[in-house]
Amino acid sequence: MNDIESSGKFPDGAAFERLHELPLRLKVAMLLSADALAWLLALVTVMILRYDFGLTDSQWSWAVGYTLIAIAIQSVVSVFLNFVRGRNRVASFDEVVAAAGIVAILIFPLGLLISTLVTDLPRALAVVMPPLAFIFMGAVRGLYRILVTRAKINENGKESASPAIVYGAGEAGRQVAQLVDHADESPYRILGFVDDSPGKQMLRVRDYRVIGTGADLIKIATETNAKTVILAVTKASASMIQRIARECADHGLEFVVIPPVREMIGGRMSLDRLRHFNVADLLGRRPISTDVRSIADYVMGKRVLVTGAGGSIGSELARQLNRLGPSKLLLMDRDESELHAVRLSIDGDGLLDTDDLVLCDIRERDALDAIFEHHKPEVVFHAAALKHLPLLERYPLEGWKTNTLGTRNVLAAARQHGVEHFVNVSTDKAADATSVLGMTKRLAERLTSWHAQDSGFKYLSVRFGNVLGSRGSVLYTFRAQIERGGPITVTDPDVTRYFMTIPEACELVLQAGAIGRPGDVLVLDMGEPVKIVDVAERLIAESGKEIEVHFTGLRKGEKLHEVLFSTSENSNESAHSLIRTVSVPSLSPADIPERPKNRETIHDLLGEEVRSVETPNASDEKYGTSIDPETTVSKGPRRA
């Protein structure tokens, strides 16, 4: 256990804490007096250790005079450069550098000069005194910092503060401890750290000991009576977060996380940004960096068109593109309400009377030609699509008309009107496609590849998995089901999906558009797949309700586990660590019929690209234990 925790409160801590309430001038005077005392102690120390006070009167006079000059220089420079205000009163790294600078640059050379010119000032005194004074000044500030920090801990250690273990003894963990120590009313009282690095065991972070590894988390929490675990690891993997969340839930511990790095201003955090673990944290913490300059190079000052601009991906693309300074941002959708919503989200304009709002269905080739002729876009992001797998299995012709013929129409209009940069938004269901959704989007990838080869223009596709929080996603569905009192429906206990937040996915789509080559399919690194039942359980825990989970069995065309690459594809690295590239065989628009006769026609068009895959349904025993669609699992409120 942490020494502070085990030794209880410090009876004199409140007195030191009240130092903060003193007037600034009085605190400055006290600190300057402490610095002066440090120089006098240095003088006395040298006299005892080196001269045993055996100096002549003249030498004593010069020694005291030199000390007073040093004190004067120290005080004037400290006040002039504000080294006695704010954080520099508490032994920060900044003050260590500042004090060392004053001693090394001003006082130390002055002592050598005087001792050279004046023989009555012992040279040893001029050489030894400044380092000693520096050490004493640091000791005074360090003692002040320790006492005030411990006083803060005592003050924050009241009953309402939750005793907490910080998981992660790196820079993020240090910041968390600092925030808790200096908060007037912290909701947490730190007991110690755990960290998976063997080299950090038994070390101290801001006077708190690293008391074990993550494997001992529950044991340590039990022994110290911890009630909260604060995760302070900026690059925590999805599996790590899921493990900690599950352990905390099983043992009734509150689980609190720091915000992702991308949400921290200047890479720093504040105490009020610490929050309870939520569904988005299941995805893990991967810093996503983008080369803004390379993206701006093909967007800034250009006329940019976004199809499907009212959808989850299209609207976020539009918002991010708007910040990159296009000369004109055209928003196209067939849903007038969604166009209204995305326009409001970008600039608050709800009049619907601007030329950049385009109401059009991509199935209508003539309408597309007229729009491209009028607006003359230079860059196109094609995000319009039908995406609900079960509905497209029932109505495959609708998926064909939008996802395949619609993409063919947009590509043709773009080619005809000189668009040189085209980004087709695809899906992981296009890899080893077994559904109408996957097949139609696979054909869209191949059509895009053909136009790239035929024109030499930068026409490419970007493939990724599910986005968290989009309309119709599992998050949206589960929350609606919880609101109705349940049950939550999940197809299979083992079903997994790749997820990414919408902003992260769109950032990488824009980046892919910058680094991709003509005809490429760029595949986003989606991290680790997430079990859908884990998402359901997390949302139930957040709701605090008694909700059941029903397993219904996989639906037609659905996979137990999605893949990002087809078995026939060989992926290659790209210029970005989270993006890989694959090549797909091109498909001429002339080979696309206006209306396929049946589902088998789509298979025929894909040819060898679609392998014969039997999708495991709920009753297929050869894929494991058969699932009774009526099976239910009762879930109640759990703290995590």
From TrEMBL:
> Source organism's superkingdom?
Bacteria
KW Transmembrane (keyword) present:
yes
Instruction: List all membrane-crossing ranges.
Output: 28-51, 63-84, 96-118, 124-144
Keyword annotations of the record: Membrane, Transmembrane, Transmembrane helix
Q: Where is this region: Disordered?
A: 606-640
Describe the family membership recorded for this protein in Swiss-Prot or TrEMBL.
Belongs to the polysaccharide synthase family.
Its recorded name reads Polysaccharide biosynthesis protein
Q: Which organism is it from?
A: Flaviflexus ciconiae
